[in-house]
Amino acid sequence: MAEAYIIDAVRTPVGKRRGSLASMHSADLGAHVLHALVERTGIDPGAVDDVIMGCCDTIGSQAGDVARTAWLVAGLPDHVPGVTIDRQCGSSQQAVHFAAQGVMSGTQDLVVAGGLQNMSAIPISAAMLVADQYGFTTPFAESPGWVKRYGDVEVSQFNSAEMIAEKWDISREEMEEFALASHNRAKAAIAEGRFDNEIAPVTLADGTVFTTDECPRDTSLEKMAALEPLAPNGRITAGVASQICDGASALLIASQAAVDEHGLKPRARIHHLSVKGDDPIWMLTGPIRATRHALEKTGLTVDDIDLFECNEAFASVVLAWAKELEIPLEKVNVNGGGIALGHPIGATGTRIMATLLNELERTGGRYALQTMCEGGGQANVTIIERL
Fold it and tell me: Is 142 exposed, middle or buried (0-12, 13-18, 19+ CB in 10 A)?
C-alpha cells in the first residue's frame, strides 16, 4: 500500500474562553491556518485534492461546510473542494485519517486535514440547544430505539468521567496531581519555546499579535482542592477537566508522487490509523480498546512507542487508560494536555498531532501514538513515525 506522509503541521495559539480569539469568525480562524500551511510548505494550493476539517456544532459561523468556506476566505483557489466532518472530539484526527486513506488508496496526492472551533462564540452542544428552542427533539436518548437498547439512562461525559474514576479507583487527589502536572508541563514547554515551530501567530482586529497559548493557569493543589465537585460527593471538578477554548490547526498529507513532483520534504509517515467504538454510556473508555487494538495490529508494544498523547478531556480518562495498558505517565502528554492547553473540540486532533510531531523531532524518538475519547464511545488512534 502507498505511504501517506506528513509534510507540515501548523496551528493557532489556543485562546481561552472569551479570550484573544473569541471574536474571530470561525471561517477566518480556519482560514488562518490554511493560509499559513500553504505559505510554510510552499505548495501550489491549486494542486490540493481536498480540504477536510473537523468541526462540531456547525451552526452560526460554523455552518454551511465551514472547511470549504475557510479555504475560500483564505484566498485560495475555488476549484479545490472542502468538507466538514464531525466525529465529536476526534473530528480533526479523523480528518487526518480520511486524508491519509485518500493518499494510501492512490486516489489523491495532496490533502489538507485540520479542524477549527470557536467555543466562545458557539458553546458546546449549541446545535441541540437551538433545535430545542424551535421545538425539535434532538437528544438521542429520546429515541425509542435508543431507550429500548440502552434504557432510560442519562448519557453525560461528566457521569462517564465519574464512573471511570470509581471503576479504576482513581482518587480526586490523584487527578488533581495529574492536572497540576499538565499545567506545569505546558508552562515549561511555552517557556522553552517548544510550541514555537507549530504556531502561526494571529494578528487580531486591534493589531495585537497573538502568539502564545493562554489557557495554562497558575494553580495549586490547594486551589483545586477547594473546587466544588460537579456531582454531589463526586471526584470530578472543573480543575481536572479540559478547558473550553478557541483554535484551529491543519496538516498537509502527501503521497510519494506529490513529494517527488513538488519537491516536498516529509517530516513523518502515517504508520497506523484506526478507530474503535465502545460502550456509549461509559462514553470515554474508547481509548483503551482502540489503543490495545492498534498495538496488536501493528505488533508494537508500549516500550516501542516513544511518546503518547491521550487527550485530557478529564484526568480520569488518561489515568484509567494508562493504568489499564501499563503506559508510563512520563511518556504521556509531556508538554501538557487539554487540562492546561484547552480542548477546542473540532481542532484538538490536529493540534495534538502538530505538538507530537515537533516533540518527536525535538527528542529524536521514532514512534508516537495519539488517541482521544469521543462522543458516542469512540476513539481514534494514529501512530506516526518520524523520518
Answer: exposed
Q: Name the residue among 210, 244, 238 with its Cα closest to residue 226.
A: 238
pLDDT for position 143: 84
State the cell numbers at 57: 456544532
Whole-angstrom distance, CA of residue 165 vs CA of residue 376: 19
For residue 154, what pLDDT is reported?
Answer: 80
Dihedrals phi, psi of 372, to nearest 5 degrees: -160, 145
Is the overall model pTM greater than 0.90, yes or no? yes
Q: Residue 311: what pLDDT?
A: 98
Share of the chain above pLDDT 70, in %: 96
Of the residues 56, 245, 310, 373, only one is catalytic, namely 373
**343 has catalytic annotation:** yes
Q: What is the pLDDT of residues 13-64, one digit of tens each?
A: 999 999 999 999 999 999 999 999 999 999 999 999 999 999 999 999 999 9
215 has catalytic annotation: no
Residues 41-55 as b or e (16 or more Cβ within 10 Å = b): bebebeebbbbbbbb
Residue 135: what pLDDT? 57
Residue 148 and residue 115: Cα distance in Å, rounded? 35
| Strands annotated E in 208-293 | 209-210, 245-254, 268-277
End-to-end, the C-alpha distance of the chain in Å comes to: 18
Dump the DSSP string for 297-344.
HHT--GGG-SEEEE--SBHHHHHHHHHHHT--GGGBSTT--HHHH---
| pLDDT (mean) for 212-238 | 96
Task: Determine which one of 89, 215, 245, 310 is catalytic.
Answer: 89
Catalytic residue status for 373: yes
No. of helices (H) and no. of strands (E), the chain: 13, 12
